[in-house]
Amino acid sequence: MEPILTAVIPVVIIGIICAAVLVIASKIMAVKEDERFPVIRECLPGANCGACGFAGCDGYAKALCENSDTPTNLCVPGADGVSRKLSEILGVEFADVIEQVAVVHCAGDCNKTHDKVDYHGIESCAAAKLLYGGKGSCIYGCLGLGDCASACPQDAICIENGIAHVDTRKCIGCGICTKTCPNHLISLVADVERVVVTCSNKDKGALTRKVCSNGCIGCKKCEKVCPLGAIKVTDNVAVIDYEKCTDCPDFGVCAKNCTTGCIMISDLSGMHHYKEKTDK
Amino acid sequence: MIKLIVILLSAVFINNYVLSRFLGICPFLGVSKKLDSATGMSLAVIFVMLMATAVTYPIQAFLLIPNNLEYLQTIVFILVIAALVQLVEIILKRYIPSLHKSLGVYLPLITTNCAVLGVTILNVQDYPVNETTTFWWGFAESMINSLGSGLGFFLAMVMFSGVRSAIEGNDIPKSFQGLPITLIAAAITSLSFLGFGGIIENIFA
Known about the structure:
The structure holds two protein chains of two kinds.
Chain A: H1 3-28, H2 36-43, H3 56-66, H4 79-90, E1 100-104, H5 125-130, H6 147-151, E2 157-160, E3 163-166, H7 176-180, E4 186-190, E5 194-197, H8 205-211, H9 221-225, E6 231-234, E7 237-240, H10 253-257, E8 263-266, H11 271-279
Antiparallel strand pairs in A: 1-4, 2-3, 5-8, 6-7
Chain B: H1 2-14, H2 25-30, H3 35-64, H4 73-95, H5 97-103, H6 106-109, H7 114-126, H8 135-168, H9 179-193, H10 199-203
């Protein structure tokens, strides 16, 4: 017999036997996969941002399949559209998604505050923070080197005049930037029109005043004028409780009365509300 | 009989596949983070090693040697091992899904795990069928050697998962975090196995 045949035939026979065993085994021990899984996974945006609290879109889809208690409104980037689709597939009641956008709690740009050192180090907020709390005179404020901007999956953050700005029309509310800011200046708020405190300086009024003309000096004027009692000055900085700050009878009174102007009225309507507005 | 015990013990301690022969490092570093998955992986490897030897030794003795096809050893053995690993994967997926999930990609990687291929090839080299040994004796020696190698892998994995959990809580310099410190720990662990050299032979001598 040809040597090539004596080599090929045994290998082919062994291969066929192995294949037969595997086919039989996979038939006998087949595992049924939830047929809803690919459908649900298809609905999700696939950004794997982790805003839902699960490990990526696959994790959320799996949780939805396996556990019927999992809420369908956890996907913030997907918003109402995704929630509606999910509730249709799973046959549960539609739950409204609270769309969120990121807000930077610092407005101390180059016109309002000044640098204390000339920083020539690594272009990263985390690195600059290690060196005497950053280059700016306010150690609580935005470092302006754009760690949040590079972390943002949607390019929604840009650095302008030395501080970070969020483009709420691009922001999907995943919250990745809130974790990267070394000064924890960014938080997520519901994307309807709101007042925002744009300062996080926890020093006493006089000290704050020295370093930034936009800083909250903790004068408590806003506390007194707020008709809903939603503003509280804690650690020398005003904090708005957004659960109480709804349907304000005298909207914007806090911003008008703010001594330094650090409470601002901003249009935070994100991509979803913006679309609705333009559709109308 | 004593010879079998010597083979078993030297496979576990002296010729430990991970720590002395440096085979199968991939799962050793990849799955040793948690004790559960380290144990599961080792049991899967023991099973695959035994099955692979049980199938490849007769193939070598009755198919490859009589037909002068020893040069097909590697490809035939890999084929058999791959099929066995697939079989193990199907079984695990059906009966122990949690273990299947925690092993992840390392389970299919047993297919190309050099420790398994190493065991089968060293078995047919070290315990061949010839004039002095019968097939069954060589087969028994090979199976014992595979069991010992698997147990050695198990020992190394369990020991190292302990070492790693001890490393976990420590304040490690940033440049050593993750893989570097793991590799250093692995090196020191394997150094300790050098101490077993020569012990087993002398005990039973």
